[in-house]
Amino acid sequence: MQNYKNKTQQAAQTIQQQGTWGAINPENVARMQLQNRFATGLDIAKYTAKIMREDMASYDQDAGNYTQSLGCWHGFVGQQKMISIKKHFGTTRSRYLYLSGWMVAAMRSEFGPLPDQSMHEKTSVPALIEELYTFLKQADARELQHLFKDLDEAREVGDQVREQAVQTQIDNFETHVVPIIADIDAGFGNEEATYLLAKKMIEAGACCIQIENQVSDAKQCGHQDGKVTVPHEDFLAKINAVRYAFMELGVDDGVIVARTDSLGAGLTQKIPVSREPGDLADQYNAYLDGEEVTSLADMYSGDMAIKQGERLIKPTRLANGLVRFKANTGADRVVLDCITSLQNGADLLWIETEKPHIGQIAELVNRIRAVVPNAKLVYNNSPSFNWTLNFRQQVFDAWLEEGKSTQDYQRDQLMSSQYDGTELANEADERIRCFQKDAAQQAGIFHHLITLPTYHTAALSTDNLAKDYFGEQGMLGYVKEVQRKEIRQGLACVKHQDMSGSNIGDDHKEYFSGAQALKASGKDNTMNQFAVSS
């Protein structure tokens, strides 16, 4: 951050050059400028893209330097997350935000709650990016406002040591603004539609856009059935569209995450045209399921035939015209998807899996890295996985393989609370605790995210409050389980007027109106009952 004194001096020079600006205080100008460091979304995109690129390079040097994020469905949720991270860890470094298309559909559409099938308004995605950054910038403004008050108090009592210490804090202030990995689904249309939406997302501040290889108008949640992929040429056109959007807007460091759903997708909507043996279309078509055609008598009205290697086949088509892939080809298609994407402009990969299994992920990544050695993943630590059951079963299977007794456990019943605290459950929990660190080391995962955690935390906390408040606990249900914990855990949000910007507004009133300003933060403000100040 630019030196506080320098910005004050620059403001003073500007004011002095104008004869009628005598009422403007240069230090107040400097404070407002520092509280609004990013003038536009493009400023944010350029700043955060640089951070992501540095983090990616750091991970290449040491896989222990992986990054993390949580999905946020509202600006306030994202703001509180980053405030909490700064409070507990002292820095936001390596922590991002994730914008989940699932949560946009479920919580931000004007149609009301929708499934994750790209039915929500595409404009709601850049709108949420802008909202998230508005709240993060407000978190900056609020924290700096407290530092400015500390500076004024030190000056009032003549404490020069404290004054210098606070000024150093201001000069070294770390912003709450961090990279957002933003989900553009399958692009919401053709490549031109993808380009137009990507531009809006970048202009709102997105430095990283994640795009998937499903058919846009048949898009399904990654953890649902019925997924349909597109040929590589179609997907690469959309990757190109996103890159053009980044470069047109001057965000040359913009990051593209290419997501493949091929592991769980058994259908394609289109058979691409192959121009020569072994090209991408030919490789894609090699995975199509079909019946060998040996005679024209095998063909019926409306049938089609393609050459697959040395065979002529009639592709297996469903009643809706979709074409089926051969069984058990998902992993091979994933590897081809990933290599092709990285060789054609993508920066990071996303492999949507059906379970959180490091061995499965590593097997795929090792095959990709045999061709592209620095391949890196963004991985969905999804709430769609039953983590408890998955890892208890993984331990159970490992014990069986090792010859260790499993007679006290029933594999299909391992979710039961009767196993809580057992040796198997404890080992499973330890594997869950270390999953991100181990997967970063063993499976090439650069970024770990949870797509929709705050959807679940909002539901859980509301359920607990409703149960107590409307039950026998009454008001104690709120005081004991919410407010008392806010105070004792040092949550700044307990002073909700301050968090919403009341004190910043008071400062502005004083800047604009001087002594006649009508301020809200006087002695009768009930927020004075709380000791928490940061």
TrEMBL record:
The keyword Cell membrane does not apply. The active site is at residue 221. Mg(2+) binds at residue 183. GO terms for molecular function: isocitrate lyase activity; metal ion binding. One of its GO terms (biological process) is carboxylic acid metabolic process. Can also use Mn(2+) ion. Keywords: Lyase, Magnesium, Metal-binding. The keyword Metal-binding applies. Transmembrane segments: none annotated. Coiled coil: none annotated. Its cofactor is Mg(2+). It catalyses: D-threo-isocitrate = glyoxylate + succinate. SUPFAM superfamilies: Phosphoenolpyruvate/pyruvate domain. NCBIfam families: PRK06498.1 (NF005074). PANTHER family: BIFUNCTIONAL GLYOXYLATE CYCLE PROTEIN (PTHR21631:SF3), ISOCITRATE LYASE/MALATE SYNTHASE (PTHR21631). This is Isocitrate lyase. It comes from Marinomonas pollencensis. The lineage of its organism: Bacteria, Pseudomonadati, Pseudomonadota, Gammaproteobacteria, Oceanospirillales.
